[in-house]
Amino acid sequence: MKYFKYIFLLLVFVYACKKSEDVQQQTETFLGFQSPKNFPAPVYNLANNPITKEGFELGRKLFYDVRLSRNNTISCGSCHIQSSAFTQHGHDVSHGIEDRLGTRNSPPIMNLAWSKAFMWGGGVFDLDLQPINPITAHEEMDESLANVLTKLQSSSTYKNQFKAAFGTDEINTARLMKALSQFMLMCISSNSKYDKVMRKEANASFTSTELAGYEIFKEKCGSCHKEPLFTDGEFRNNGLAPSAINDKGLYGATLISSDKYKFKVPSLRNLKYTAPFMHDGRFLTLDAVFQHYSAEVQPTENLDPLLNRNGVRGISITADEKNKLTAFLNTLNDEDFINNKTLAEQ
């Protein structure tokens, strides 16, 4: 009897070990790009740059590599910090090499597969081209692509990684950009409470306050911050008073008069981690944002019609509505995203 009991326990132990190995293998298995069930189809053409484990890992290494800057001191990850939903938390505008100050707040890197335009002031419509701007900008990384390629080409490790990702150890601009895109495309924030409710996952539901806030949101905010990405991806003038540097937004890229003071509509996801707010980081809190929309919208050139109805500027928001809206907006915070170890520097 004891013999059979021993055999039984041994089989249980072997099964448990096998199951543990299976779980570990599944965890280590690279699943590639997975579009969330409650998201629309991606805008990015994945067929032109299929995401592979090797390409993603190469892109991640590049994202955190200081060699992309002129003096080898900062990386993409310096201004896009994962714990802050890939923003530079606490800074109103970006801080580049030699602590040079930019003119705009570092935008979050998340859900870029669904973006059709990039940067606060536009001018870039292809994710594969976007990194060129911060790499070459004087106030950011202040480096040339030629110098970056020379640095990377001198590394046997990088040559091996490029060969594994693209089938050749030749390191060029196109492959550099595609590798960075593969990493950024995998920065998907889709596991907030809101997402779980929308996907009708078990035990996921809004509180009465959150649900009331959701209804207020749909009535007063949803036109520009469209679900489920919480941005319509457009460029709009939301009535901010022009700053001292008189940043004219999209106009700088198009030189079209009707684009003056228009900036890209940001996503409202992960607001808990991404303060300060607006293109120049002028608002430190959500209360300040609410105050702007309820009482401080300026009659600037090209003010969005949605903020100037029947001669009344702004959006009427009561104190009670602010509380309920805040409760709903907190359901958009995604702790899994900021703690995803596969997106962290390795």
Q: Rg to the nearest angstrom?
A: 23 Å
| Helical segment count | 14
Helix-strand makeup class: mainly alpha
Number of strands: 4
Strand arrangement in the largest pleated sheet: 1-2
**Biggest sheet architecture:** 2 strands, antiparallel
Order of helices and strands: HHHHHHHHHEHEHHEEHH
Residue share in helix: 25-40%
Low-confidence stretches: 2-6, 8-16, 19-27
How would you sum up the global shape?
Answer: globular
Strand content: under 5%
Query: Termini, distance in Å?
Result: 51 Å
Which whole number gives the mean pLDDT? Answer: 93
Tell me what you see in this structure.
- The protein has 346 residues and is mainly α.
- The protein has 14 helices and four strands.
- It has helices spanning 2-28, 53-63, 76-79, 132-136, 145-153, 156-166, 173-185, 193-198, 208-220, 251-254, 271-274, 286-296, 319-329, 335-338; strands spanning 235-236, 263-264, 308-309, 312-313.
- It has a two-stranded antiparallel ribbon with strand order 1-2. A two-stranded antiparallel ribbon has the order 3-4.
- Helix 2 (53-63) runs antiparallel to helix 6 (156-166), helix 2 (53-63) crosses helix 7 and helix 9 (208-220) crosses helix 13.
- The chain is globular and about 60 Å long.
Give the structure's gist in a few sentences.
The chain is mainly alpha-helical and 346 residues long.
Fill in the keyword field for this structure.
14 helices; two-stranded antiparallel ribbon; mainly alpha; globular; 346 residues
